[in-house]
Design goal:
Structural class: alpha/beta
Number of helices: 11
Shape: globular
Number of strands: 13
Order of helices and strands: HEHEHEHEEEHEHEHEEEEHEHHH
Largest sheet: 5 strands, mixed
Helix content: 40-55%
Length: about 325
Amino acid sequence: MKQKRWLALAGLIFILLVILVAGCGQQPAPDSLSDDDAGNEIVESVESASIMIGGSDSEVNLVTRLAEEFMNENAHIPIAVTGGGSGVGISSLIDGGIDIANSSRPMKDAELENHLANQGDEAFAVRFATDGVAVVVNENNPVVELTVDQVGAIYRGDITNWSEVGGADQEITLYGRQSTSGTYVFFMELVVQADYSPEMRNLPGTSDIVEAVAGDVGGIGYAAIGYADREGVKAVNIAKDAGSTAYDPTVLENVTSGNYPLTRPLYQCVTGKPSGAILEFLLFETGDAGQSIVLDEGFYPITAADIEFNKKALE
């Protein structure tokens, strides 16, 4: 009887060893595939879910905040955001170095062709916020409004003293971005319509421009609207021409209606039609939660025209 019990015990130990060895050969289930995520198609694998974003300096703070809020609910999708300018972001996307290029301007035809040649796939763009590029002056400058033509003349160097546009007898100091900036290109094409004055001081970031103008009573600069509400500067109202109303870019309706003449959409560009984690992030940004953050960061939500534009990439 005693011998039978030992044989039974030995058999049980053998079975347990077999189960243990078999279990050691299996890969543990990743944390992201918990019961709560069952059926969730956000990611196909944890390894492929990280997102690298780079580009527009105007967008970097806004996108960083959006990424932080997204990761609060999707910790298994790490997102890294860097600046450098729209041109830098688009070049990195063409080279395959990043997943999303922040850009304050559309990709140029040559860039689209290079992207297709390098990546073997079409580039898609999504509009996720609306910007009214603000013309900022020192808060002690008495000038409160300008026309697009006047701003263009100032940046071409045709107007060099504030007294020529209703201000004090004060020399104008020009502050602008570097040529890799999408805002540099946008402002040159829409406002300056020629080369910038060689006297313009080209600064690396939008915050640098705002800080410089805050410390210079004769200064003028341009900045994304999300940077305009800073101590020491004010955004002047801008009129399309001498016979038009000048609009304040800090008022939402003035920008989303298009009445403010320096309104533009903000873009994110990706390789191929978005899917997986990238698609989920873009849907978050353009959804209710993301658009609430856009407003909180001082920018404006996308318009009906932007939603229609986004259908090509998001539907």
